[in-house]
Amino acid sequence: QVHLVESGGGLVQPGGSLRLSCTASGCIFSIYTMGWYRQAPGKQRELVASITSGSSINYRDSVKGRFTISRDNAKNTVYLQMNSLKPEDTAVYYCRAIASGYIHWGQGTQITDSS
């Protein structure tokens, strides 16, 4: 059974930085496309960034130049480095793994504007 565990969320001031981690177990991590999604209160879940098994990367426009997604297959972990955070980045951030039509989600980690 695939299990994804996110960590690294918390309170952050505008302009601050955080790094999220998502560690997978129960799967061959290297074959999965990994993604970070977020959901703000009252809004739909949206893709923030994704990285394929071949390390092709995609970002939503609003985070380009501020967020960086990366993966370490040896550690079964995907990261999201978030810099220059804005109040509108406040949301629950979810990790997603997809391969061969199978989709798995983590439980989410909260990013909150502390201002």
Secondary structure: elements and pairs:
Layout: E1 3-7, E2 10-12, E3 18-25, E4 33-39, E5 46-51, E6 57-59, E7 67-72, E8 77-82, E9 91-99, E10 102-105, E11 109-113
Parallel strand pairs: 2-11
Antiparallel strand pairs: 1-3, 3-8, 4-5, 4-9, 5-6, 7-8, 9-10, 9-11
Summarize, please:
This protein has 115 residues and is mostly beta strands. Helix content is 0%, strand content 54%.
Structure description:
The protein is globular. The mean pLDDT is 95. By secondary structure, it is mostly beta strands. It is 0% helix and 54% strand. The protein has strands spanning 3-7, 10-12, 18-25, 33-39, 46-51, 57-59, 67-72, 77-82, 91-99, 102-105, 109-113. The strands form 2 sheets. Strands 2, 4, 5, 6, 9, 10 and 11 form a 7-stranded mixed β-sheet that branches. Strands 1-3-8-7 form a 4-stranded antiparallel β-sheet, with no helix packed on it. It is built from no helices and 11 strands.
Mean pLDDT across every amino acid position: 95
Runs with pLDDT <50, length 5+? Answer: none
Query: Can you give the helix content as a percent range?
Result: under 10%
Order of helices and strands: EEEEEEEEEEE
| Rg (C-alpha, Å) | 13 Å
Structural class determined from secondary elements: mainly beta
DSSP strand tally? 11
DSSP strand (E) fraction?
over 45%
What is the overall silhouette? Answer: globular
- Please work out how many helical segments DSSP would assign: 0
Distance between the termini: 40 Å
Major sheet: size, sense and barrel closure?
Answer: 7 strands, mixed
